[in-house]
Structures are given as structure tokens and as C-alpha cells.
Amino acid sequence: MKIKVINKSTHALPHYETIASAGMDLRANITEPITLKPLARAIVPTGIFMELPIGTEAQVRPRSGLAAKKGVTVLNAPGTIDADYRGEVGVILVNLSNEDFVIENGERIAQMVIGQHSQAQWEEVTELSSTERGVGGFGSTGVK
User: What is the DSSP letter of 52?
Assistant: First the structure.
């Protein structure tokens, strides 16, 4: 799939690190470091603008290493970028650790996955088909 992109950052375009990668790393495009205090959040610019094909979306997800090692994650994970959005891709980061986290220019801050989707059409009915699970939810299928 080809995606039109404008790169106003000082970094290379996001790319897949391996042949089997689902996501591409997004990098901070900032002129000076951003310090995220514990429980603070910030929208971090990437300098990337894109035109996704209709029927696709970009999901912005946390980087597992950043989350596990530093306690920093994407606040609205996954963040959805719709095909009709033309603004700069920004990443909402939150620091869930007890220590300050400094974001440097060029730092890999999130990953972006491009996916296809469908739009649903609601059909109002008076009852739904039955299943073995029924209305059980929130752990009703067991813990093992």
C-alpha cells in the first residue's frame, strides 16, 4: 500500500525495522528536550503528515521497551489517525513512573501500525442470537 507523506521532521521517514514488523517507530521532532514529570502528559510532535487511503487507519501504540523500562506509554493507546486527517501526527505520551523522563529530539517514542477497517451499519432488532457464553463478560470465561 502506498501512502502519501510529507516529512517536515529532521529524521528519516518511519520504516519497518524487520521484514515481519507490524509497526514503524515514530520519532520526536522537537527543538529542545521535553521533561515529563511523573503522571504528566504531553503531545509530542513527529513532523509527519500523511494521506491515508480511505478504508485504512493508522494506530499509534506504545513502544514496549519504553513502557517496560521507563513507565512511559501512549495515553490513548491505541490512538487512531483517520484517513481524512491531514494534520501533523502527534503522540500523547504519559509518564506513569515515579521519575522524570526526558524526551530528546529523534527519540523513538511510539510505533505506528497501518490497518484496514470497515464501517458498520447498525441494524436495530428486538433480540440477539444466543450463545454458550451469553451475557458473561469481564473474566467470565475463567482465568486459565
Answer: P
